[in-house]
Each structure stands twice: as structure tokens, then as C-alpha cells.
């Protein structure tokens, strides 16, 4: 999957190499949660009882790898700073494919103008509420306060990958990112 390939390489370049046997865990989970990132162990949990399709698993892995990337490069205070959590959830919803047109159509959510941003905001709020005992108002306020900066932080993709083809282009660009500077 080009999304995961790019993120794994970006993590490695940031000094946070991911090992599949150490940093991924498949478990049964409560409710309808599909996965999570455990900052204490730097481990991605995949909820095997709630993931039924490869495409869904790819999105969950990508979403959680974005959290791992943020944890590595930004030293996110996951437990005490809800704005940090909000920022990573915004980035994960924006860059993982969670809010692609096809995914939104499959959820029976339609819209044209600003729909991607609305989806990212709503999914970030839902994710915060799923992992923290905060009020909906607190989650909404945190997301609104950091939305613009975090929505526009496209690292390591450099663009919003709206499709696998976009993700492949982003991965190629990422691989060639330093090539041009080396010749100066």
C-alpha cells in the first residue's frame, strides 16, 4: 500500500523505524473501534474482530501510522493536551483516505463544497470522543482551535492523497525529495 510505504519510510528517516513484529498487534476490541495507537508502547493495534476488508485495514494502518509519525516527529502529549490529540486526529482523517469521496458515499454522506473539511472535522471529533473522556464541546473546541494549522500540515505526503494514485505520486515525490538538494 503506497500510503503505508510512504509513512514507514518517513518514520525511518525520522529515526523511528517500525518493526512489524514489535509495533503491530492484532487484538479483539470492544465496540466498533477499528484500531488505535498506543503511545506508551509505540504500538499500533488492529482490531481483528472489526476489520472485514483489506481496504478497511489499509486505511486503519495508514491512520494509525500517521499517529506514529506525529508521535515520532512532534512529541505529542497524547494524555494531557487535547489539542495535540485533536491535531493528530485531524491529520489522520485528512491524509489516510478516511474522507475520500468513495468512502463518504459508502457512508451515505454527500456534499460538494467544503465536504472534505467537514468530514475531517467530524471524524477527528469522533476519534477524540472514542479515546478520551471529554465532553463533545471540549472535543469540538480543541478541533476548531487547531483545525487550519493541522489540516494544512501535509507531512510527509506533501499533498492530500485522495486516491491510491495520489499516494503513489506522493511516495515517489517523497523518495526524490532530497535528490535535488544533493546536487547543489
UniProtKB/TrEMBL annotation:
GO cellular component: a single term: mitochondrion
Annotated keywords: Hydrolase, Metal-binding, Metalloprotease, Protease
Matches recorded under Pfam families: Peptidase_M76 (PF09768)
Keyword Protease in record: yes
GO terms of molecular function: metal ion binding; metalloendopeptidase activity
A GO biological process held by the record: mitochondrial protein processing
InterPro entries linked: Peptidase_M76_ATP23
Enzyme Commission number(s) from the entry: 3.4.24.-
Residue ranges of the TM segments: none
Family: Belongs to the peptidase M76 family.
Protein name: Mitochondrial inner membrane protease ATP23
Organism (species): Dryoscopus gambensis
Amino acid at each position: 500500500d503506497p500510503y503505508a510505504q510512504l509513512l514507514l519510510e518517513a518514520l525511518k528517516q525520522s529515526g523511528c523505524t517500525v518493526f512489524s513484529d514489535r509495533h503491530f498487534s492484532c487484538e479483539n476490541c470492544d465496540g466498533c473501534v477499528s484500531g488505535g495507537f498506543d503511545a506508551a508502547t509505540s504500538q499500533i493495534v488492529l482490531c481483528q474482530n472489526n476489520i472485514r476488508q483489506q481496504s478497511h485495514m489499509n486505511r486503519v494502518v495508514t491512520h494509525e501510522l500517521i499517529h506514529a509519525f506525529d508521535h515520532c516527529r512532534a512529541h505529542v502529549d497524547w494524555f494531557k493536551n487535547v489539542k495535540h490529540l485533536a491535531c493528530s486526529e485531524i491529520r489522520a482523517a485528512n491524509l489516510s483516505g478516511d474522507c475520500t469521496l468513495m468512502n463518504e458515499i459508502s457512508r451515505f454522506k454527500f456534499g460538494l463544497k467544503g465536504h472534505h473539511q467537514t468530514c475531517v472535522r467530524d471524524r477527528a471529533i469522533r476519534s477524540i470522543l472514542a479515546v478520551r473522556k471529554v465532553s463533545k464541546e471540549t472535543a469540538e473546541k480543541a478541533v476548531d482551535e487547531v483545525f487550519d494549522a493541522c489540516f494544512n500540515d501535509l507531512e510527509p505526503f506533501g499533498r492530500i492523497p485522495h486516491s491510491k494514485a495520489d499516494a503513489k505520486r506522493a511516495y515517489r515525490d517523497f523518495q526524490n525529495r532530497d535528490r535535488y538538494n544533493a546536487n547543489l
